[in-house]
Amino acid sequence: MSTSLLRSTPSQLTNSGRMNLISSNTHLGILSVSFYHRPSQSCNIKLCFSTSGLCSRLGTRCCVVSATSSKLYENKGINSSIDSQSRYTDLKDDMGSSLSILEEQLRDLFNEVHAMIRIGKENEARDLLLANFEAVKEQIDAGLKGIEEAAILDVIALGYMALGDIRTVKPLLDVLSEVVDDLKDEEPLLDSILTHMGNMYEKLENFEMSICVYGRAVKVVERLYGNTSSFVVTPLLGMAKVLGSTGKTKKAIETYQRVVKILESSRGEESEELVVPLFGMGNLLLKERRVTDAENAFNRILTTYMKLYGENDGRVGLSMSYLARVKCAKGDVNEAIDLYKEALRRLKVSDYIAIDDHIMEKMRVDLAELLHAVGRGEEGRMLLEECLLITEKFRGEGHPSSVSHLVNLATSYSQSKLFAEAERLLRMSLHIMYKNVSPDDQSITFPMLHLAVTLYNLNRNEEAEKHALEVLRIRERAFGEDSLPVGEALDCLVSIQTQLGKDDGELLELLKRVLKIQEKAFGTDSEEVMETLKKVVYYLEKMGRKHEGLPLERRLSKLRTKFKQMVQY
Q1: DSSP characters over 402-427
Q2: 35-64 pLDDT, tens per residue?
Q3: Quick one: pLDDT band at residue 553, thresholds 50, 70, 90?
Q4: CA-to-CA distance for 152 and 172, rounded, in angstroms?
Q5: Strand 46-47 vs strand 64-65: parallel, antiparallel, or unpaired?
Q6: What does the UniProt keyword field contain (predicted)?
């Protein structure tokens, strides 16, 4: 019934790409996409604006010619660190006059939508997007399904993405997909539209379509500029990310490696643009336990930032924290601790990230967990207390986000056998949860199960059983009787009821449920299954049913040998 500190997921590093279109907010830079222009037919679609001087928001629609282009989304609000003015002006010299006008109009449309969102006028933004959708839909219904219609639908869909209106984006993408499917690959702007679609499909978790449209975008660029052109980098990065998130790790790594080679050739081996693929590739290599290769990737990121920004820059601190993860995987715990400490120091000195940022919080929790692992619990507890104090300062005492820190502190005190203090903190966390969610909400079961464990350690088993049974009831309803959270609750309940002297047959049946759940979740030869098999065999022998346990004993022996060899390796 061990517990561990809560861990938040690492944020993704990104960096500058071609132009300033689809962007991801990060602390290490911006990954962006752009439209570029090739000769096109004159454009004939009309857009609606609410801009003063053109037309009133509720009056007659003001119509302008339209298409999409480079600087369209520069003020999307996601992009905050890259100066793209030079790239924008570079486009203008090669742009046809009609496309230049279209670019300006659609840029104004998107920027106006975003400005409305920024000042809280979401309804006005929706009205404007809807008006433009109705206008372009009239053109489509009239049989016009060209690149201009696709470009405007693209802008509208991205506008709804900025609003967080995923439900509206899906049918928009369906319409856009029908238009794009009929377009030839030679159409201007098509590769950029496809790249945006890939990004939006990813957000909708339609990964199959995301990979499909990213793949077409890659082919379009390769046909026009060759397979080593830097223009192919953006759709390749999008594709690699989706491949990695869908478990196609080997193919994702190969895609990242291709991007690295292209950028090394076109930008140089110390280009900041290499950070994005190196980071994505490093994470996947770490997942595949290719620790040395992952370390090389993260070391390159660290070296790049140190050369570009100096040793005390915040990006250097972030890079050190990612390298610390690799050191953990290698077993170099003390090196990892030193790296985390230095990373936090540089981030504080540089003021690169706000003190209450989730990245800083994750680093403190990760460092605290390492310190506990090497027996430096008091140091780790100080960091956890700092997390709690920061949360209370910026969000207020009793805020739901403080619950994880209270539970972590309780875990720390439990590891030091200070169970009374752990109980106090866990009851505080439960009090906060009851004030903010329903008593049957599954999120309540996390601190409640920790409290059951703590009461068990205080030999207050009747009270511990009461909480464990309540956790089991809520989780069975929330997740299903064969779910992993239910298995965790059952495992805890068995330990408690063992101390209470419950019937061995009942305990054995509970353990069989746990075993079935673990086999489904972790596989039949996992370490979790091995530990539960030990308990099942113990109870079978205790109940005089050793003959039933013989096949399980043989299976257990094989698993012990397997994990013993893994430890030696």
Answers
A1: GHHHHHHHHHHHHHTT-HHHHHHHHH
A2: 333 333 334 444 454 533 222 222 222 222
A3: confident
A4: 11
A5: antiparallel
A6: Repeat, TPR repeat
